Amino acid sequence: MDKIPQEQAGYLAEAFRCEFVSLCGIWVEKIRRGYLESRMEVAKRHQQQNGVVHAGVISTMADHSAGYAAFTVIPEEYEVLTVEYKINFFRPAHADSLLCRARVLKEGGRIMVGESEVFAEAGAEEVLVAKATVTLAVVHKDKMPQKGSASPE
Amino acid sequence: MDKIPQEQAGYLAEAFRCEFVSLCGIWVEKIRRGYLESRMEVAKRHQQQNGVVHAGVISTMADHSAGYAAFTVIPEEYEVLTVEYKINFFRPAHADSLLCRARVLKEGGRIMVGESEVFAEAGAEEVLVAKATVTLAVVHKDKMPQKGSASPE
Amino acid sequence: MDKIPQEQAGYLAEAFRCEFVSLCGIWVEKIRRGYLESRMEVAKRHQQQNGVVHAGVISTMADHSAGYAAFTVIPEEYEVLTVEYKINFFRPAHADSLLCRARVLKEGGRIMVGESEVFAEAGAEEVLVAKATVTLAVVHKDKMPQKGSASPE
Amino acid sequence: MDKIPQEQAGYLAEAFRCEFVSLCGIWVEKIRRGYLESRMEVAKRHQQQNGVVHAGVISTMADHSAGYAAFTVIPEEYEVLTVEYKINFFRPAHADSLLCRARVLKEGGRIMVGESEVFAEAGAEEVLVAKATVTLAVVHKDKMPQKGSASPE
Predict the structure, then answer these.
(1) Are B18 and A54 in contact (CB < 8 Å)?
(2) A80: part of which helix (H) or strand (E)?
(3) CATH code of A77's domain
(4) CA angle, D112 then D115 then D117, to 5°
(5) What is the pLDDT of residues B86-143, one digit of tens each?
(6) B92 belongs to a structural domain
(7) C153 in contact with D at a CB cutoff of 8 Å?
(8) How far is B67 from chain D (nearest CA, A)?
């Protein structure tokens, strides 16, 4: 249900893995209309001093996944930019892997809103460690901000 | 003015560079009471699809710098945890380097608030690309959440 | 299910209607453990220039309802203070009445997080107009900030 | 410096006082390009249970003032809508009056960002009690959302 074309799903899963997201080791698990699930295996490079996953990794996962969930519901000639987001951290992420479930809360118009929940997976357990709300601007490809320019007109 | 002891400054600048922050290539430039400046050189690994710096990198810089600015004003036996933050992106970050200026907005008590401004530096120009507000919990080292436990009591 | 004692429910519904919330005309509809529903009838005094409900009314409803949802899960000798919140407005609220559904997202410890969804009701229709995330501090009554003092120690 | 025409200033100060903002008793004190100062006298109707000013009043002041600060920098045929905001409360507002200083952080394009600081005034003292970041959409009057319609196209 709410499937998107195989080809589009493949394209988005591929585009998802830009340089920084590859560095973080985050990949797409599931994608359907208005929804995206991503996952990453926790490694030493993701940590802060005390051995837990750095908030920056969790934020990257939450923001990026919400952005790509939005990509599934907009026309082909448009792109999505993060205007702002807010993220709450509920507890430290001690985990073997992290799972992010992102969905579109509000679609239509020039402003979309998504939300992402990030879960720490350890063995069979899954614990909610963070939740983000992400505001996105939907911008025509021809009006995307250029190098050195200001934000979308 | 508002200097902190050389030894503490050195210790914080060192501790700042945890695994993930080193991976991002962010370091401390200046530190004084309630204030921290950090910088990073932009490289290919920081980018998203369109060649601009990924929001996740900017967020990591903003959150982490605000947290360490807070470290300069709390007693030695305490630590700081990010409860939540909110970040607005004003324009795409096309830059040679990024500079973050973080300062403590509200100190005292168990909850502190900091804010960070991130600037894109290209040649002699400096452009504000993002601003974050960061809420921090001040927690006694003995009460820091343990592996597998919930958030601070 | 998840009922709270009749007496506590009555007390909270009564306390909910402080001066400003009465002025806004917001009342409690349902209350159970970790959940609170509130409602208000839209009147001329709630409006902004263009005839829609002012964001300040919606925000008051969202924040206040999340705070009281939190009250249902904390020990009797504690109180709840709003540390911060973030609210997204999805569409203008043209409505006969507004309904708010608030629930606790994260409980336990000194910091709780709730979220509220506000719906515009017009006839039989119900449309989501706003969503808020609310960070709350749980403070012992003896440690509540006093007149003129700073925030909770 | 950065003055706006007397006539525009008068019009904005008047429009500022919509139904709900009048009910709250908030008025414009100063206005110039990209900046607005508002004030209110604290009365019993603004309070929550414990005698402090309700967060909803402070939020209304912060959001509304940032919106009108934005009005000073946009072309005449455009309007401003609050997309979202985030507000931190630093300490309870025990005050005779509240003062809000709102300014535009980022202008240009379809998305603007403002920030507001709210101060509690008691005698000669002025204490920062809250700070908000407000994201605004700049919408042409002909494209403002209509009754029952979705958000701006």
Answers:
(1) yes
(2) strand A78-89
(3) 3.10.129.10
(4) 165
(5) 999 999 988 899 999 999 999 988 999 999 999 999 888 899 999 999 999 999 998 8
(6) yes
(7) no
(8) 16
